[in-house]
Amino acid sequence: MISLNETGFLPEADKLAVSDHDGTFRIIDDNEKKQVDVNISVTEAGFDETAGSDIYRLDFSEVRDPGIYHIESADGDCSSTFKVEPHVYRSLKNALLKFFYFQRCGCALYEKHAGPFKRGVCHSKTVKVPGTDKELPIKKGWHDAGDYGRYSSAGAVAVAHMLYAFELFPEAFNEAVNIPESGNGIPDVLNECRYELDFLSEMQDEDGGVHHKVTSRVFCGFVMPEEDTFDQELFSVTSMSTADFAAVMCIASRVYEPYDPSFARDCLHQAYLAGQWLMENPENTDFRNPEGCNTGEYEDGSDVDERMWAFAELLRTDHYIGHEHDRSFAGADQQVQSRQDRYLAHLMTEMDLYIKDHPHSDGRSTDDGFGWQDVSSLGALAVVFDPDNYAGEEVRGKMLSMLCKRADAFVAMQDDGYPLSMTDKDYVWGSNMVVANRANVLIITSLALKKGEEVPEKCQRYEEAAMNQVHYILGMNAIRTSYVTGFGEHPFKNPHNRVTASDNIDRPFPGMLSGGPCKLLLDEEIKKSADETTPAQKCYKDHYMSYSTNEIAIYWNSSLLFSVAFFDR
Ligand code: G3I
Ligand code: 9MR
Ligand code: ZN
Questions:
Q1: CA-to-CA distance for 361 and 364, rounded, in angstroms?
Q2: Nearest residue CA, atom 12 of ligand 2?
Q3: Are 71 and 27 in contact (CB under 8 A)?
Q4: Is any atom of ligand 1 closer than 6 Å to the C-beta of 495?
Q5: Ligand nearest 519 Cα, by number?
Q6: Do the beta carbons of residue 157 and residue 550 sit within 8 Å?
Q7: Is 100's C-beta closer than 6 angstroms to any atom of ligand 2?
């Protein structure tokens, strides 16, 4: 089998495919119907236990002319076709963003924007506050995944991925994606994220604390969202959600400032309140489902990384905007300095704790620091890309060194077998997010070093390694599957998504990223076709009931969007 990125390659980029057998290979131009006169170099890369086969890497970087091609081996094996094109990832990028529109809760999706995937208004009743007789209107936000819950940390992390991508490479977000707000003068990535930010705002109490989630008590059946009649409940406040909220509201206040200054100011005010709450509530209020509740838990044994991120963002943003706006909410001018000193002190405490608890923060664990459970790389990003470096050289140095250690470890993982930064134990629930998160850590580390005096070859290696991660997701894997609906010759088709399973349309909407292979075999469907001896990359089933291998989720899509937008910029 020859597997490769079925969406294609940028003309000037390195081009890799993977074969499970040796041989001689040639490139066929599918338009000209003839062999292309270029050299394919074949490197033996050893046995890869995650794939359960020998690996040969085919380098065909010499193919640079735009066109449609495939690879053939002398013994008759054929790859999928692929394109070489300057904007080969553009429609993929836009579909990954458009996905969030399809996850919108509390509004109708009209044909104009949703085509055949139009649907009615869902979850518009008020939300019950357990233990009281209160009911709150908690509107908007995205359905988390294949279920209809709305979870604050999951949403905050997804928005952060997108806003950071926009902040770091805004040129990647020029196209409109046909959502109701398109054409209002604001980039669609910000229009879409606003829909979630408005929801997150409603999750905050007056004292600054942020509730963990709004869901029904138990998961509803496989019905369309507008047919889900279960009551929605508001669950308790957690330090994790409050910290994630503080961080994302800071980013939002910077990013929306040129478009909507009064919204930006509200975001900063809410971030400030969340920061106050965090300082007054130093304990980790880890979430556990109450008796009888089975919806998503998003439990987290440590909130150190979340607090680190929150204080990094508060410190950076308080300075950034504080000088230009009415700061009456935050106290008089003379209080500003002492507030910022406190943010810095908290940032340093949490950072040192994090580093002490993670002596091997180098990617040999699943700690990429870019996901819902560990946000340490997002904290590092906040510090390292602060143009004013308010955290100071010492903190910046430690944060950059953490990113570099991770990036170096991810590069080293690509030395043999698959050119992929994944080890056997990394195939957890949502492994495709691990793949994409590692790409993103490589990308931000490269960008951070490019700003300094550091050698550019190193950055190039990081970016190539990041690209290989994207190749894997788009088809260069042991089961030759493209993990994004609608893209490539072999896209997965049956996500664990209540909408897709009940909309009576014979295909899924495009742009959904599957969770991907999960060695832990956590649902009945995957257990029917895999066991402990199955190689990790093959612990996957394109079946709508395999939620541990084939669900979709907002922070998986946003993570892939980050790297795809980077390569399309
Ligand atoms: O972090 C540990 C790591 O230290 C350990 O070595 C490794 C090996 O077991 O596991 C890691 O924990 C995993 C954790 O995700 C973090 O990656 C757990 O095994 C794994 O079971 C857990 O899966 C989570 C799943 O919910 C079950 O809790 C997924 O990340 C998370 O994306 C998923 O989220 C669900 C929501 O609850 C409900 N909505 C759908 C959504 C997507 O499936
Ligand atoms: O659909 C649910 C999915 O979103 C979750 O990630 C998953 C794990 O929490 O659970 C799914 O719901 C299943 C439930 O946990 C057990 N009964 C079957 C449900 C799928 O229909
Ligand atoms: Zn809804």
A1: 7
A2: 219
A3: yes
A4: no
A5: 1
A6: no
A7: no
Structurally, what CATH architecture does the domain formed by 1-88 represent? Sandwich (2.60)
% of the chain beyond a pLDDT of 90 = 93
pLDDT of residue 318: 87
- Percentage of the chain beyond pLDDT 70 is 95
Is residue 208 left, alpha or beta, with left meaning phi > 0 and alpha meaning psi from -120 to 50? left
CA angle, residues 219, 224, 227, in degrees to nearest 5? 80
SS (H, E, C) 62-88: CCCCCEEEEEEECCCCECCCEEECCCC
Single-letter amino acid, residue 196:
E
Write down the domain spans for the chain. Answer: 1-88, 90-477+550-568
Rounded CA-CA distance 542/525 in Å is 10
Q: What does the pLDDT look like over 24-83, one tens digit per residue?
A: 999 999 999 999 999 999 999 999 999 999 999 999 999 999 999 999 999 999 999 999
Instruction: Count Cβ atoms below 10 Å from residue 33 Cβ, excluding itself.
Output: 7
- b (16+ CB within 10 A) / e for 216-232: bbebbebebbeebebeb
Dihedrals φ, ψ of 233, to 5°? -125, 150
Mean pLDDT, the chain, integer: 95
Nearest to 40 by CA among 70, 66, 80, 10: 70
Strand order in the sheet with 41-48: 2-3, 16-19, 53-59, 41-48
Tell me the CATH number for domain 90-477+550-568. 1.50.10.10
What is the CA(430)–ligand 1 centre distance, in A? 7
Asked if residues 514 and 550 have their Cβ atoms less than 8 Å apart, the reply is yes
Pocket test for ligand 1, best of 153, 373, 429 (most atoms within 8 A of CB): 429
Q: Which residues are catalytic?
A: 147, 496, 542, 551
CA distance 424 to 518: 10
b/e burial code for range 313-322 (CB count within 10 A of at least 16 → b): bbbbbbebbb
